[in-house]
Amino acid sequence: MKHSSILICALASAFVFGSAALAQFIPPGGSPFNPPMPPPPPPPKIEAPVVPQMDAPPRQSYQPAPRPSFGDRISRCLDDAAASGLDPAERAAYSRACAIR
Q1: Which of 39, 65, 81, 92 has the most beta carbons within 10 angstroms of its beta carbon?
Q2: Which regions in the chain score pLDDT beneath 50?
Q3: Can you give the pLDDT at residue 18?
């Protein structure tokens, strides 16, 4: 009876200490203070470009381009007049006529 109890205690201690030793395994070149590696990033999403259909009608925008604001037109006209070498009085007359168009 004494031998069997010693054998049971030895097996129980082997299981307890054996599992603890496996939990503390450190790979070669590693450190117990290093955090675990992060998971790899997800693969990029690759989509095939849309291929135009031969029998599909072309899609065009029939909307005219928006007209610049009045202030933008005056500024452009004054710049054009100054580039042409007009004096201030002539620039004012030119910008009034030019911005209306």
Answers
A1: 81
A2: none
A3: 56
Query: Whose structure tokens read 């095939």?
Result: 48
13: Cα within 13 Å, side-chain hemisphere = 6
Q: CB-hemisphere CA count at 13 Å for 70?
A: 3
In our burial notation (b when 16+ CB lie closer than 10 A, e otherwise), range 54-82 reads eeeeeeeeeeeeeeeeeeebeeebbeebe
Both structure tokens of 83: 């580039």
Helical H segments across the chain, by residue range: 2-23, 70-84, 88-100
Both tokens of 47, joined, read: 């989509």
CA separation for the pair 11, 8 (Å, rounded)? 5
Residue 40 CA to its chain's centroid (Å):
17
| pLDDT the model gives residue 46 | 92
Whether the full predicted model's pTM is greater than 0.85, yes or no, is: no
